[in-house]
Amino acid sequence: MDLFGRKLYLFVMFIPLVVSWIIIALASSYEMLIFGMIILGFGMGMGFCVSTYISEISSLSHRGALLGLLTVFYNLGPVLSNTLMYFMTWKLCAWIYALLCVSFMLSTFLLPESPVWLYSKGKKEIAIQTLCSIRCSNINDIKTEIEDMEKSNTNKSERASFTNIIKKMFGAWKPFLIVVVLQLIMQHTGYAILISYTMLIFDRLRLPIDSSKFSIGYAIAGVIGSVIAPYAMHRTKRKTLLAISSSIMGLCTVVIGTYEEIFYDRDDKFFPHIVSISFYVYAVACNAGVLLIAYSVGSEVFPNEVRGIMNGLYGVFSYFYWSVAIKFYPTLINIFGVKIIIWSFAGFCFLVTAYSCLILPETKGMTLNEVQEKYFQKKNKPNRKTKMHNDLVLQ
């Protein structure tokens, strides 16, 4: 993505998706299905870096809203697949997805290349022309963005060497550590676990409610939260949105934990729907803030030169840890019990709140270069001799 451009990357991203769906549609054995799913995983992993392209082509005022659309389509995907599966066979569904991927792949030819990437590669005139074609109206915003790109590329060679890229990667350790720790904490707030084991966890709570109906409601709540996300990202600061949404998640899990402490072993459970309602509110809050920010913040905090590769490495870590977490939690539930797990969810939710207030950098209303200047670039302090010289000149 950093070497060959965002546009070519997006085109290549659809190749494994197309191939995988064709393999799945033609599958005549279990092994062939598994092979198709493995190929599909490559395309899904590459999709993590789509947020990089969105961040770089978006205007300052619309970046949050456009990033917020990621969770909308993330949640609409399962709704579409479940709807298609209700009316037709899975093989026909696979062919439909293959055709959709082909059409999306061809549509990348209509996309503009990222002006930020073009400018970083020394193609300044093309970058400015592309930026003007994207914005087309506000000349002041265009001038501001051009000045920002020029500032971020001052004293940089047009063609970065492999050694310089490695140095930049190591130089980006601070933003990488910030987003990785956020991802670690977020994974333990329970959202990924509840998505994977919705009915298992709900059944363990011993409630007189149909767990299959609850799972449908939980999925719908996620879609509602994702629809709220673009507006919330557009209107609210990142730190504030993350703190509010994680606090709501924490309060919901506290309500669930308290209810289970009181009524877990009792037959006369008072208003058990308070648990399902709390889970629904939890899902709305998570999709409206925590989930979106955890997966999109990498596209805003990494330096221009290595934004693609660092966001990709962040995606590798996120998917790997997600896989590990969802494999271990059934064992943890069996060892500690579901009540302890719910309380642990509450603790990690409030830990995200503290993390957002104390550590997470605020990126709303700032250009990508301004984020680097404010939080991650070293401030050059004048040495003692320079300070003495300046004092003498002033005197």
Can you walk me through this structure?
With 395 residues, this protein is mostly helical. The chain is 78% helix and 0% strand. It contains 20 helices and no strands. The mean pLDDT is 86.
What layout of secondary structure does this protein have?
Blueprint (H helix, E strand, L loop, with lengths): L5 H21 L3 H17 L3 H8 L5 H25 L2 H18 L7 H6 L3 H12 L3 H14 L9 H10 L1 H15 L3 H6 L1 H7 L6 H25 L2 H26 L9 H24 L1 H4 L5 H30 L1 H21 L9 H9 L7 H11 L1
Write a concise synopsis of the structure shown.
The chain is mostly helical. The chain is built from 20 helices and no strands.
Number of DSSP strands? 0
Average pLDDT: 86
Order of helices and strands: HHHHHHHHHHHHHHHHHHHH
Measured distance between first and last alpha carbons: 53 Å
- Which regions contain 5 or more consecutive residues with pLDDT less than 50? none
The residue fraction in helices comes out at over 70%
Number of helices: 20
- Compute the CA-based radius of gyration: 24 Å
Question: Judging from the principal axes of the Cα atoms, what is the shape?
Answer: globular
Strand content: under 5%
Secondary structural class:
mainly alpha
What summary fits the major beta sheet?
Answer: none
Keywords:
single chain; 395 residues; mainly alpha
